[in-house]
Amino acid sequence: MELLVFGHAGARLIVFPTSFGRFHEWEDRGMTRPLHEHLERGWIQMICVDAIDTETWYNKRCHPADRVLRQNQYYSYLLHEVLPFSRHINPNPFQITTGASFGAYHAVNFAFRHPDCVGRIIGMSGLYDIKRFSDGYYDQNVYFHNPVDFIGNEYDPWRLEQLRRMDIILAVGRDDALRASNEYLSEQLWGKGIGNALRIWDGFAHDWPVWEKMLPLYVGGHD
Known about the structure:
39% of the residues lie in helices and 17% in strands.
């Protein structure tokens, strides 16, 4: 699968595109612009990955059980190929995941599934209850790809410790239909003693110009 790398050093920022987006979406939308100084000074390095949403949750041509199996394969690719690649080109130990809209779902879900690999999550205008995409089908695989479900039932001490050390930022518009999903996930996290920052922006805020403003506020500065 294809990806793009911006920057030469710093915290490693894995970027997920929106639904139906490709690895070049953030470049096309000018999302490198608000992070220009971070990239130039070596504070962060962006790795924009491809997505296969049309083969997973949006693939209505196949059974939901097959959609989620394909999703498992995608996350295996991220874990066993993208993350080792990012560490190979940049030894900085701090890993961030981010995305907007459906990309925020991937950023949050992947990090929650592998909390030992990620230090900060920036979810912008995300959906965190995936059940609407499973057409009423529900199995263990769907459960473990649905953050609002598995976080609320997390009891493993090691995983809870890893989740509690992460910086978790959920930003969403006050009038966004996905606001309730963000608020519910935030409540689930706090219920497990997992700190998080829920940031409610004025208006709908589900658009690229707003995400461009959000990103530099939450990505962090230099080491």
